[in-house]
Design brief:
Low-confidence stretches: 1-19
CATH class: Alpha Beta
Number of helices: 11
Strand content: 15-25%
Mean pLDDT: 92
Shape: globular
Distance between the termini: 25 Å
Order of helices and strands: HEEEHEHHEHEHHHHEHEH
Number of domains: 1
CATH topology: Rossmann fold
Number of strands: 8
Structural class: alpha/beta
Radius of gyration: 18 Å
Helix content: 25-40%
Strand order of the largest sheet: 1-2-4-3-5-6-7-8
Length: 284
């Protein structure tokens, strides 16, 4: 089980030309460092199962790292797992949030990667739409935000959030993040500063998936003892989806932290099953 070797780092942390050559449709293929945009970090790895077609599910993977760290390789084990299950995927690196790069620029990067996959559908032998987007931690926030607000072409039909922040207007979350040293990450991704007892800048709501939710089936997986992103963030998202009558599932991993306990075989199996089932149900 190859993913198990990588599972503990998923949440923490050559085709060098954009004109990637078409891989043989009957064969499994791995395209590395495919350039999807003008920035140095605009690269993605594309994994394609053998005998694929427009009916084969396809997943867009977004790594974690507090919006300021991590790389597409952090999701390599996940890509290998999907490949073993006959599911295509792309894992992308994106610009890091900073004093000058915020959620809007990150969404631009995701959009470029998604639309490139759609544009290369015929060459790669994959579907051109009905993708599932899945992210871990900060990547989960990005997956939710992109699917709900920035997927103007409606290419995304399912979302998977692993330990993701969902409401950047939640003062409990903001105060907790500040207490554990994550305040600067939130300030960078929103492009605004939180000052206790002062009104929140509008960027906090604009960057919050819960404020943008719409009818895209969403799977939320979160450890109840998460000390990085509070479990209540997924509860808030679930409540909103319930209110909007959007299909969703909240999977609480009892007593586990930000890494979801993926290094434990019994938990790994539960999460793998939930993810594969969601992809097969909503990535069709």
């Amino acid at each position: 089980m190859t993913w198990l070797l990588y599972a503990s780092i998923i949440l923490f942390t050559a085709c060098s030309k954009k004109e990637a050559p078409p891989p043989p449709l009957g064969q499994e293929a791995r395209l590395s460092n495919v350039i999807y945009g003008p920035h140095a970090r605009n690269k993605m790895d594309v994994y394609l199962p053998a005998n694929r077609s427009a009916e084969t599910p396809f997943v867009v993977l977004v790594h974690g790292g507090a919006w300021m760290a991590g790389n597409k390789e952090d999701m390599k084990g996940f890509q290998e797992l999907l490949l073993e299950r006959g599911i295509g995927s792309v894992s992308l690196s994106y610009r890091y949030a900073s004093a000058s790069v915020h959620y809007g620029e990150l969404m631009e990067d995701v959009h470029k990667a998604v639309t490139m996959c759609s544009g290369y559908a015929a060459a790669w032998g994959i579907r051109s739409r009905n993708y599932v987007i899945c992210g871990a931690s900060a990547g989960a926030h990005m997956a939710l935000l992109y699917g709900y607000k920035y997927d103007q072409q409606q290419l995304i039909t399912g979302i998977i959030s692993l330990s993701g922040p969902t409401d950047l207007t939640d003062l409990t979350m903001l105060n907790y993040a500040a207490s554990v040293g994550l305040g600067p990450a939130i300030f960078n991704v929103t492009g605004a500063t939180y000052v206790p007892n002062q009104p929140l800048a509008p960027q906090f709501a604009a960057a919050s998936p819960v404020k943008q939710a719409r009818n895209i089936p969403s799977l939320l997986i979160h450890g109840t003892a998460d000390a990085v992103v509070l479990y209540s963030q997924s509860e808030i998202m679930a409540d909103k989806l319930e209110e909007l009558a959007v299909p969703y599932r909240l999977v609480a991993i009892d007593g586990e932290g930000h890494d979801l306990g993926l290094y434990k075989p019994e938990i790994f199996t539960i999460i793998e099953t939930e993810i594969i089932n969601w992809i097969r149900q909503y990535g069709q």
